[in-house]
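User:
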Amino acid sequence: MGRILIIGPTPPPYHGVSVATEMILNSNLQRKFKIIHLDTADRRDLSNIGKIDFTNIYLAFEHFLKFIWLCIREKPEIVYIPISQTTLGYLRDCLFLVPAKIFHKKVIVHLHGGYFRKFYEGSSKLMKNLIEWTLKEVKRAIVLGESLRYIFQGLVPDERIVVVPNGVDEKLFEKTNLTIDTKSKNHIKVLFLGNLIKSKGFFDVIKAIPKVIRRYSNVKFIFAGKFPNNYREQNEVFRYIEQNKLDSVVKFMEVVPGEKKIKLLLFSDVFIFPSYNEGHPFVILEAMAAGLPIITTDVGAIRETVIDKENGFIIEKNNPKQIAEKIITLIKNPELRKKMGEKSRQRFLKYYTKDKFIENLSNVFREVFEMAKN
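Assistant: Predicted structure:
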């Protein structure tokens, strides 16, 4: 049985990489391969990611020593590393990439975002050289969509770049069809899930609300997520809400995990996520699993997931006017809303389930083991 060392954090906190790592560890991959896990989680707040402080330095050193020990004790043939898209993050990744290279391990890197190429091109010459050297001999570089293959071109041979879209556990949403008719008949609920920051398009949704409620008063906007540790931005939002008298149509919630999140999705009518930079966001897949029409932007692999005018609308970044127009379109057309939601559910079941994700990842592992035999 092939031995694979999986490097990556598990929740909490919840973010794309930690969710994917947990999914891998709780899958049937355990029956196909000998899975060894090095948990790199920092259990503190998400705001600590990418920062230098004593705890992060200590954790990096601790994880490096554990990695060396696992390589010596467990002798994995494959090392799987979800890589970062920032200078500090990638330097931390090099604590695994460099020794794996020295130990002659077969390395698989998995990119969970869509920003790596810009990060690479904007790096110093020294950093570029480090990235090129550490990626040159990886056996597979995983991206989240066909449109993201370009990210590793010139850094990794084309034949070693593979696509593995994210997936969500469909069993969590099995009651979707039973609950679809229990949505409130009195209000249309527009849901945003994610960090409440400008780069997620959160402010753009807020600015779209006045135009929507001038046409329809029976709309509720629900924002579930965490504000950054930036009180100026937070105050700016609440000042805008107060000035435009939006208190009665806006509801804020903390991060909603597990069943609470599923229930929130199932009882919503429209999902909005106009982010400025993404890879293949889990929240969109979760909204599709819940049978919702999606309003989102053309970033990362989203266009491959949300087909414009089929299971949602693709809009421009930083465009509250378009957000308002698409929400109004879905409010005044209940049949369109229902049809798009059904298409979302169908596309999810066909392409983006947890089983599909694990199957695709298993195939990548098998390919690399086959390379070793040959």
